[in-house]
Amino acid sequence: FGGPRAAAGLSAPLVLVAALLVGLRGLAPRPPPSPPASPAPRRQAAARVAPAAIVLPAIAFAAGVGVPMVFLALRAGPLRSYVAALVTAGAQVLASLEVALWGTGILLALGAAYAVASRGCTSRVRAAAEAGLLLALVLPGAVTGLGLLALEARGVPPWSALYPHPAAVGYAAACRYAALPALVLAGALDAVAPRVRQSGAASGAGPLRVALRLVLPLLLPSILAAAALAYVLSFGELSAAVLVAPPGGMTLPVRIASLLHFGEDSTVAALCLMGCGFALGLALLA
Predict the structure, then answer these.
(1) Which of 83, 93, 175, 225 fits a 20 to 30 Å CA distance from 231?
(2) What is the model's pTM?
(3) Peptide bond preceding 13 in cis form (omega within 30 of 0)
(4) 10 Å Cβ neighbour count for 58?
């Protein structure tokens, strides 16, 4: 209703709660690192954990994904429901794919910058940077969307240049979920042994050649994981996209939320399954 100050005031308690949660995490005691175990006990422990490592995720997947998808498939009905869904929201599907690509690119760039910059920092500085990332993760999407709208309305660069491009929604998703790809890439870069770079330097390779020929191939699985995570989160962003999506740039989650008010159950179910297919298909491929 055109009341940005009132909306900002209502967002303040959400920001305080999120900051409190991140602060409590920082106060939690961390156990000291345990000494490395010998290979034999490690193999025995892995053998004991293996059944639980398979059964528990399978139960969680069946309850959290399998049952809802079966229900949606029954509700969607025959193939003509999917055709009707594409006719109804084909433009929104394409918009979500474009938003997801923008969000993935921005998130990977932010994650790579964080991973490289955090290597030379002290533990306290890294803990503070980590807390900032987590604070953005737990903030409600309405807070992020409201802040971006305020920046765009005041013509503050570079945010003003994003609107009304679909990259604005991708940037909103990147603001919310920067912590996850960043921590994945930072952990992967930390796991690269220093002797890898030292051996390359000792062989006469420069820093760029060491990074491209030695470090990057070791990081490729983690980069794929971070990219899949960024894509899925950007594709499914709803709470910030409701505010930030430009005219004519409505995404698929926003379209599904709007169709719920018109009782289009079979169309909504078909669109939900199609969205799951885009997300899960890419995750499985990665």
Answers:
(1) 83
(2) 0.79
(3) no
(4) 11
Helix (H) or strand (E) holding 230: helix 216-235
Angle between helices 216-235 and 179-191 (to 10 degrees): 170
User: Which H or E run contains 184?
Assistant: helix 179-191
The confidence score (pLDDT) of residue 37 equals 54
What letters, b where the CB count within 10 A reaches 16 and e where it falls short, cover 222-257?
bbebbbbbbbbbbbbbebbbbbbbbeebbbbbbbbb
Contacts 24+ apart (CB under 8 A), 276-281: 276/65, 276/69, 276/72, 278/93, 278/96, 278/97, 278/235, 279/231, 279/232, 279/235, 279/236, 280/65
* pLDDT above 70 for 273: yes
* C-alpha–C-alpha distance, residues 28 and 7, integer Å: 33
Q: Cα 47 vs. chain centroid, distance in angstroms?
A: 32
Higher pLDDT, 262 or 31: 262
In this prediction, residues 217-245 reach a mean pLDDT of 89
**Which residue, among 180, 151, 168, 178, has the nearest Cα to 240 in the 3D structure?**
168
Spatial separation of the C-alpha atoms in residues 258 and 266, rounded to whole Å: 14
Q: How far apart are CA 65 and CA 59, in angstroms?
A: 10
